[in-house]
Amino acid sequence: MASTAVSDPDQPSYARPGRLKVFLGAAPGVGKTYRMLDEGRRRAARGTDVVVAFVECHRRPHTEEMLEGLEIVPRVVRDYRGTTLTEMDLDAVLERAPQVALVDELPHTNVAGGRHAKRWEDIDELLAAGIDVITTVNIQHLESLNDVVHKITGVPQRETVPDEVVRRADQIELVDMPADALRRRMAHGNVYAPEKVDAALSHYFRVGNLTALRELALLWVAGRVDEALQKYRSEHGIGGVWETRERVVVALTGGPEGTTLIRRAARIADRSAGGDLLAVHIARSDGLAEASPAALAKQRALVESLGGTFHSVVGDHVPSALLDFARAESATQLVMGTSRRGRLSHFVTGRGVGETTVEMSGDIDVHMVTHERAGRGRLLPTPNSSLSRVRKVAGPVTGLVLPIVLTMILSHTRGTLNLTTDALLFLLAVMGVACIGGVVSALLASITASLLLNWFFIPPIHQFTIGETNNALALVVFAMAAVTVATIVDHSLRLSRRAANATAEAETLSSMAGSILRGEQGVDMLLQRTREAFGMESAELAHRTDVDAELAAAGGGHKADLVTAPVGPDDVLVLRGRRLAASERRVFVAFAGHVAAALERARLAEAAAEVEPVKAADRMRTALLAAVSHDLRTPIASGWAAISSLRSREVRFSDEDRDELLATAEESLVRLNRLVDNLLDMSRLQAGALTLNLQPTALAEVLPMALDTLPATRTPVVTQGVAETADILADPPLLERVIANLVANAVRHTPPGGKVLVSGSALGERVELRVIDQGPGLRPEDHDRIFEPFQRMGDTDNTTGLGLGLALSRGLTEAMDGTLTPEETPGGGLTMVVSLPAAGGSPLPPEQVGDGPGRLDAQDV
Fold it and tell me: If pLDDT is split at 50, 70 and 90, which confidence band does 859 have?
C-alpha cells in the first residue's frame, strides 16, 4: 500500500475511515498507557491485528511488562540540534497496515523532519487509511483548558491538542484515580524515578492540584456524554425531560427584577456540581418589543459572568414558548418572577404567565421568585379595612351604575317578565355590589334599585306612588333583603380578613419564636422582620430618654408615625411609618418581647466571650506553672552542678573532665536561654505585643542560620530548591526561629537511618517551605492539637522541652501573614508547610518551579 500524505490528491480511497479511541487522564501516572496496552492485548487475544506504533513507558516496569507479546513497529531516528531522538515511523505503520495501532501521547510535538508537526496529525492520516487507533492524552493538554490548568498548577503546558480532535473520537474512556491514590503510587516509585518523587509531590502533584485536574477531566467527559445523549434523544424523537443533569432556565422579561432572578437561578444551579444556567427571553413574533434592549444587554452580561448562557426565543404564547425551550434543553428547573400586575389587572385579564406556566410545566419544577417590590411588602394584613382601595372606589360606582344598566335592559323586555322576576334580578345585582364594595355600597345600590324598581316597574309607572298594598310590601321586603344580604356579605369579608390576620400573626410569631430558640436570628434580623411584618419605614432600638425627648419636642407627648414598646430597663423598640391599630399593637408587644430576649441572649454571649480569654489565660498559666516546675529545674540543676564542681577545691579535674563540665554548663545555659525566649515570645504573641520588621528575605540566607542553632545530630538535613525560590516578605529572626523549631521537631521524630528534607517552591503569589520527616506521622484528628501549647502528642521524654515549639512557630508564622499547616508525607511521616507571601508579589516563574535537584522536566508533567 502506498504511503501518501492525507493532503495528497492521489491518495487512494479506503472502504471506511478508522475508528479512534482515546484514554483520557487527569494527570500523569493514572495508568493511561497501561490501559491502552491492556486494550491492545485483549484485542490481539481475540484475533485482531494489533501493533504498537509508539509507546512511551517512562521506565515503569509494570507498563513495560504489558508490551510482551505485542508487535512493535521500529521507530524512526532523527537528529535534532546535535541530539538523536526517536519518533513514530508513520510510513512504516501505513505500510504494515494493521487493524489497530497503539499510539501514545496524542499532543506530542514531532521532531522536525517528519511529514506533520503534531502527532495527532499523524493519527489523522492513520485513521484516513482505515486503521483504528487507540491513543492517550491528559486533560491539561486540551487547548480550551490550557489557561485554566496553568492557573491551577502554575505550570504552563506547551504541548496542546485541539479539543475537536479528542471530541470527534468514537470512544473516550476516562482513566480516573483519586489524588491520594496517585500520590501513593508516586511515593512507591511507580510513576517517576526516586530522585524526582519529592519534587513532584511538592509541586505539580499536590492534593489540591490533582483534585482540581480530576474535576476538570470528569466535567469534560460528562459534557461529551451529554452531547451523545442529546444526539440519541434527537434521533429517537424523545421529548420528555431526563433528569440526568441539573439545568436551570431563568425567564427574563427585561424588567428590573431580572438581576434578582439571575442570581437566584445561579445559586440553584451551583447547589448541584456541574449544573447549567440558561437565561431565555421570549420575544414576540410581530416585532413589538416590550423589553428594554439596554436592560437585556446588562442581564446577558451578568448571566455570562456567572458561567451561564443567554438565549432569545420568538413566540406569541409566552408559557408555551418558554416550556418548549426548557424541554428542548432538558431543563429540570424553571425560575420565574412573580407577576408585576396589580389586582385589578389580574381580575380583568385572568391568569397570568406564571400561573399558566406552572399548570403546563409537567415534570419541570417551577420556582416563582419575588423581587424588589415584593420584598418590601407587608407580612401582616391591615385589620381596620376589609376592602382594598380599588374596591372602595369601585363599590359605590358599581352601586350606582349597575342598577341603571339593569333597568335599561329590563325596560326592553317589559311585558315578558313579571314584577317578582324583576325584583329578584335587582336583588342579585345588589348582592354583587355587596361582594365588591361592602355594606355601604350595597345600601347605596339597594336605594337606587328600589327607586328604579318603583319608577319603572311598579304601577303606576313613572310615579313614586304604589297603587297596590301587595306591591308596597314587595318593595319593603326587597329593600330589607338587600340590606340583610349586603350586611352578611360584608360581615363574612370582615371575618375572613380577621382570620387571615390571625393566621398571619400566628405564623409570623411562631416562625420568629422558632428562629430565636434555634439561635438562627440576631437582633438586626429581628428588627428587619419586625419592620417587614408591620409594613413600617424603619425599626430600631433606642434609649428611652432619647425617645422621650423626641416625643416631647413633637408636642403632646406623641407622634402619629412613631410606635414604641419597651424591651428592657433603658431600651425601647421604635417603629416609624404609620399608626398601629389596637390588634396590631398587641402583636407588636409580642415582637418586642422576642427582641428583648434576643438582646439578653446577645449580652450573655458577649459576657461569655469576655470571660473565655480569661479562662484560656488561666489554663495557660496553670499548664505553664506545671511545666516550668520541671523544665526550668533541669537545666538549672545541671548547670549549677557543673559550675559547683568546677569551683570545688577538693577535687582536681583533668583537662578533659573540665572541658566536659564546661560543655555541660554551656549546654544547660543554652537550653535555659531557649526556654526563656520561647516563653517570652509566646507571652508577646498572646498579648499582641510582638514587634515585626517585615522585609524581603531570602530563604537561602535564613535556612543555614536556623540549622546552625540546632544541636549536633546524626540525622541528615537535606535542602532542595531553596536557593531558587523568590524572596519572601518576613521578619528574618522570627523566620529563623520558625525554621529551627520545625527542623528540630522533624529531627526528633525521624528514626535512625532516615533524613529530614527541607524544600522550597512557589505557589501563585506565595512561597512555600516544606519540612519533611520520615517519622511515625500523625492521625488526621491530631493535626490541630499539635499546635496547642504544652502538647507533646504522647512524648514521654519530658527533657525535650515544654511543647511550645510548634505553637510558637504557628503564632510567629501567622504574625507574618503566613500559614503553618501539617500534611501527611507519602510513605509515612509528617510534612510541615510554611506558606508566606512573596516579596513584591513576584514569585518564582512557573517554568522554574521545582528547578534544582529533582526538577521535573517539561515532558514529565
Answer: very low
